[in-house]
Amino acid sequence: MRRSDAVSAVRPDSRYARLAARNLAKELLWLASCRHRPGPDPNVLLFASRRGGSTFLMELIGAGEGVRTLDQPLELISSSPTTAQAAELPLFRQGQMTSLDDLSEEWLGRLVDRLLAGEVVINAPTRVWRAGAWRTSHRMVLKIIDAKPIIEWFDGRFGCEIVYLTRHPLPQSMSCIRNGWTLTADAHLRDREFLDRYVPAPAEALARDVMASGSTLRQWVVNWLLENVAPLTALPRHPEWVHVRYEDSVRRPDDTIEWLAERLNLRDVDTMRSAVERPSVSSDISTAETRELIISGRLGDRADAWRDEVDPSEQRWCCTALETFGIDPVRVAA
After folding, report:
1. Is 3.40.50.300 the CATH number for 12-332?
2. In terms of CB atoms within 10 Å, which of 19, 101, 132, 246 comes out highest?
3. How far is Cα 278 from Cα 322, in angstroms, rounded to an integer?
4. What's the pTM value of the predicted model, to 2 decimals?
């Protein structure tokens, strides 16, 4: 679909108008109350999947002094587009950036440059009264959900610290199903360049078979695999990347904070610890039980609870599917 065709197909309704007004108000609030002056520390690009703990990790890193977070500034599917997104962000099938051509690389590169410089504001925090909401920032954290297949392009293009978050595909898939979210596998399966680069032939056959006739849970696991095969394949080539497993972060938050502070040169460890003790802004779509565990500081109790809800045969199938995609289950199945 051409960009002009997609834009002309939009039919704003009252909900769209409300979302657009809210986004504009958030941008104006940030621009009026905060300033960004780039400092010596490299910016951070946080790559993750939906319902994988990305907001928790983003807020943890963003609690460091002078660190500003932008929550999914490159995603058009999850919210109405801001002016900058509509003007500069390339359009991709189902919002998934599975590969880049020259034109989309130019558009995307220009927008990310402006985001990192503080010239454009998309989905910045508006709760300026919270600890860690620094009025003057010197470092940006961009949370990116729908561009994991081009993670190496980001790494080479912007010179940022790369943080990659994974969560076991089964509980993550179960959470997406519970929230009624939409699969994005079709975007990956229609991109021949992506498939030839990252997906072995047996894995492609498995994915197409499951998407055609598999259970909802297996379809979501395949969705996870297609979204994550590129960064997981790239990890051994990039020991400098910071790979965080969600399960480790909730079981051993103090160790995770110390490690992140060292790897990313984050200086305000006490504020990071305080961030662990409060629910993230996305916790309202978690279960009531999970929210209570967050508040009580016992989220680690939930890390393995999903195993009682999934038949062992499905757990074995998931491990086999990971191996078919060339992914070591131990790397992600904490």
Report:
1. yes
2. 246
3. 33
4. 0.83
Tell me which residue has tokens 């305000």.
Answer: 268
**Per-residue model confidence (pLDDT) at position 1:** 38
CA atoms of 180 and 183, how far apart (whole Å)? 10
Structure tokens at 138: 């010197």
Reported as a pLDDT band with limits 50, 70 and 90, residue 318 is: very high
Of 44, 38, 72, the C-alpha closest to 260 is 44
The predicted pLDDT at position 228 comes to 96
pLDDT of 192-220, one tens digit each?
999 999 999 999 999 999 999 999 999 99
In this structure, what token pair is assigned to residue 198?
A: 């990252």
Q: What is the pLDDT of residues 279-306, one digit of tens each?
A: 544 444 444 544 444 434 455 556 677 7
Q: Give the residue, 278 or 257, on which the prediction is more confident.
A: 257
Q: Residues 67-83: pLDDT tens digits?
A: 888 888 888 754 556 77
